[in-house]
Amino acid sequence: RGSRHHGLRVIIPPRTCAAPTRITCRLVKPQKLTTPPPLVEGEGLASRIISLGPSSMQFLGPVIVEIPHFSSLARGDRELVILRSENGSVWKEHRNRYGDEVLETILNGMDEELESQEELEKKRIRRIISTDFPLYFAVVSRIQQESDLIGPEGGRLSSKLVPRVEAIFPETAVTKRVRLGLQAQPIPDELLTRQLGNQA
């Protein structure tokens, strides 16, 4: 287990490294990168970018990284996503393949306290479970997004935040199965009335 900054932890369970390995972890400012994470309107970094080493390291089992963030999720309209970059120029979303229910199995008898997802949310810490280290991890705050795999047969995406918003994809709208996302941001009625009067 390694911990340097408050809340930042890297946990390497027993028998996940094939040989003795020096693990490094650095906080990086986005302006120091040639290609920082691509952010669209309404998105922002929720912590410093994390550089882990050795990059491209493949572990024999899942390891845990916990990153503190400063994003507020209290209103319920935002979510955190983890972006990863293998080479510093291309970023993609990291998806945890393991849920909290397998944490004890992952720890493999290691005497380490892991808090529940609810406790981590209160402390503003994001947990990443991975079997390899990319060059960088980034925690990004964005408006809640519904996403699903849509294929040539078509499909539908509906917003949970604004139930009247949905996107319908007719048959053959896409030629192969792709993951599509839908974001909708609720606007208070009084703000609309103030801006547009009775035209809204």
From TrEMBL:
It comes from Nothobranchius rachovii. Residues 1-142 form the ZU5 domain. It comes from the Eukaryota. This is Ankyrin 1, erythrocytic. InterPro entries: Multifunctional_ANK_Repeat, ZU5_dom. The keyword Repeat applies. Keywords: ANK repeat, Repeat. The gene is ANK1. The lineage of its organism: Eukaryota, Metazoa, Chordata, Craniata, Vertebrata. Pfam families: ZU5.
